[in-house]
Amino acid sequence: MPTYEYKCNKCGHSFEKFQAMSDAPVKECPKCHKLTVKRLISGGTGIIFKGSGFYATDYRKKKTDSVDKKSGSGKSCSSCSPAANSCSSCKK
Predict the structure, then answer these.
(1) Cα dihedral across residues 13, 28, 9, 39: positive or negative
(2) Read out DSSP for 52-84?
(3) Mean pLDDT for the chain?
(4) For 27, how many CA atoms within 13 A lie in the half-sphere containing its CB?
(5) CA–CA separation, 30 vs 37, rounded Å?
(6) All residues at 6 or more sequence positions from 61 whose CB lies less than 8 Å from its CB, including other chains
């Protein structure tokens, strides 16, 4: 449930109200009891991370052995050249 910010247009009193999104907005000021309260648009608080944190290596894929998953072996095909970074024949 979010916290909404309100301000009374009559007396200038600002306050926060913790309420469900489906609840009706507050209309009466708790200080002057006039019906001149408007809900303010706020930026929110954003994400708060707690704990030891996350690292770039936590979910990184493990390095595989010299076996290439696409071609099935660690060897290059006859079309591969040492200077080429990729090969259309063996999909390396």
Answers:
(1) positive
(2) S---TTSSPPPPP-S--TTTSSSS--TT--TT-
(3) 76
(4) 3
(5) 9
(6) none
Q: Report how far apart, in Å, the C-alpha atoms of 1 and of each of 4, 35, 41, 56, 82 are.
A: 10, 24, 16, 32, 60
Q: What is the pTM of this model?
A: 0.47
Percent pLDDT > 70 in the chain is 49
Residues 35/53, Cβ–Cβ less than 8 Å: no
pLDDT, mean of each 10-residue run, the chain (92 residues): 91 93 94 95 72 68 57 56 63 60
Place of tokens 């002057």: 32
pLDDT, tens digit (0-9, with 9 covering 90-100), for 32-53: 999 999 999 877 667 667 777 6
Count of CB atoms situated within 10 Å of the CB of 29: 20
